[in-house]
Design a protein that fits this description.
By secondary structure, the protein is α+β, with helices and mostly antiparallel strands. It has a single domain, classed as outer membrane lipoprotein receptor (LolB), chain A, CATH 2.50.20. The protein contains 4 helices and 11 strands, in the order ααββββββαββαβββ. Strands 6-5-4-3-2-1-11-10-9-8-7 form an 11-stranded antiparallel sheet. A hairpin with a 4-residue loop joins strand 9 (179-186) and strand 10 (191-199). The radius of gyration is 20 Å and the shape is globular. The N and C termini lie far apart (71 Å).
Length: 241
Amino acid sequence: MLRRMSRLRRLLTARRPPLGPPPDLQRIWRGLGTARTAHTIVRDDHNRDTVLRILGVTDFANDLERSVETIEDGCMDILRIGTEIYYRPPGTEPCGAGPRATGERWIWADSLPGCTNHGLHPAITMIERLGRLRSVTPEKRDGERLRRHVFLLRPSAQQEDPMAAELHRYLELHSTDQMTWELWLTADDRPWRVRSRVITPRSWRTPQGLISMTSEHWDFGIPDRLTRPSPEDIPPRPSEA
């Protein structure tokens, strides 16, 4: 037993090889077009988990996202323009139906912090400024040789960087203090999959509060550009009305 513990101690304290420089994320994402997108939100609902699943397409060039959220009594269309979130009430049109020329009235729902919206370009800047590369692991998926980079973002309220302060407030709102980003890159540095995740520690969870939130992007470059709705179909925010 003592011999095993001694060997385990040596393994744990052995000097790890350097991870090397992080990938040039701005170069990798330059000119990125579209991708399939999924968001999974798990909340505490009176001692049982409620799972919300949102599937759609993101157009990075135009900073748009069109998706469908599965809810208990059906589904609901969701639209993101930059940091602004809109939805269309269930039953007004079939979920996922293409936009009409006019009259597809959306309802404003929320504003996301600029550095945490589901667009990848602000997220990449956030990772480069605040992220710490924790690991680089070779993997093989669907016949593709990949490198999985894991970044940890743990901003402090004392940091003077405005982006760090914004992210800290966002995480504090969800009763957690860190966010992880996973990037799978091919051998020639093409993005294969991207995943961000926020998990609330069990001791910090509250009734009706967040348990976890995961966002993923894959199938980069699919031919599915989105069209911004006409101004008359997008209502102003309540403070602007």
